[in-house]
Specification:
The complex is a heterodimer of chains A (114) and B (111). Chain A is 0% helix and 56% strand. Chain A is built from no helices and eleven strands. In chain A, the strands form two sheets. In chain A, strands 2, 4, 5, 6, 9, 10 and 11 form a seven-stranded mixed β-sheet that branches. In chain A, strands 1-3-8-7 form a four-stranded antiparallel β-sheet, with no helix packed on it. In chain A, β5 and β6 form a beta hairpin. Chain B is mainly beta. Helices cover 0% and strands 61% of the residues of chain B. The termini of chain B are far apart. The chains are: A mainly beta (114), B mainly beta (111).
């Protein structure tokens, strides 16, 4: 079983709602990631946090707002989403960002925007 | 930019070996991964190989890496119905752990 946990497992929200996805790891990893995966497609990187600082934002719309409150937690705040944002959102972590280290994925949150 | 390619589909009989192939373009890749994704689930790291290795065996799984041709393969011995899933290969480069994924190979195991 993965040591990266994500809540909730499933989320249905309207376009005017505000919700948050949560991710947690206790492996001492200092890099954490958000990926988005549409049906029948590979995951695509959204954000990278390294040592609790945002390192990479892959031109993600501002209706997605990441937050890293501490080294174990990563949140993704959602506001005014569109139906095309419906996807599986995967959190991942690794020991570090540079130098090459294994990336572990969480089970994902399946999001449906109505 | 980096590119990773896989064939779309593989059908195999239960008990036979499966071989899933992947090609990549980034010559500075440090890790090459194989992930398994079952329907409705997240990504499960199956195995990985360092770019300075050419083979890795882990129980029923054998990874072969031909760095000259930038070709990676995953062999699953004695394939079982529980092996039916989508398999993604991915690579990360020396600059950082941004994973570039292939499009995924859907493996169907027939009894």
């Amino acid at each position: 079983d993965t040591e990266v946990t994500q809540t909730p497992k499933h989320l249905v929200m309207g376009m005017t709602n505000k919700k948050s996805l949560k991710c947690e790891q206790h492996m001492g990893h200092r890099a954490m990631y958000w990926y988005k995966q549409k049906a029948k497609k590979p995951p695509e990187l959204m954000f990278v946090y390294s040592y609790e600082k945002l390192s990479i934002n892959e031109s993600v719309p501002s209706r997605f707002s990441p937050e890293c409150p501490n080294s174990s937690l990563l949140n993704l705040h959602l506001h005014a989403l569109q139906p095309e944002d419906s996807a599986l959102y995967l959190c991942a972590s690794s020991q570090g960002w540079t130098g090459g280290s294994l990336v572990d994925f969480g089970p994902g949150t399946r999001l449906l925007v109505l | 930019g980096e590119d990773v390619e896989q064939s779309l589909f593989l059908s195999v009989r239960e008990g036979d070996s499966s071989v899933i192939n992947c090609t990549y373009t980034d010559s500075s890749s440090t890790y090459l991964y194989w992930y398994k994704q079952e329907p409705g689930a997240g990504l499960q790291l199956l195995t990985y190989i360092f770019s300075n290795m050419d083979m890795k065996q882990d129980q029923r799984l054998t990874v072969l890496l031909n760095k000259k041709d930038k070709h990676l393969s995953l062999r699953i011995a004695d394939t079982q119905t529980g092996d039916s899933a989508i398999y993604f290969c991915a690579e990360s480069g020396a600059a950082g752990n941004k994973l570039t994924f292939g499009g995924g190979t859907r493996v169907l195991v027939k009894p």
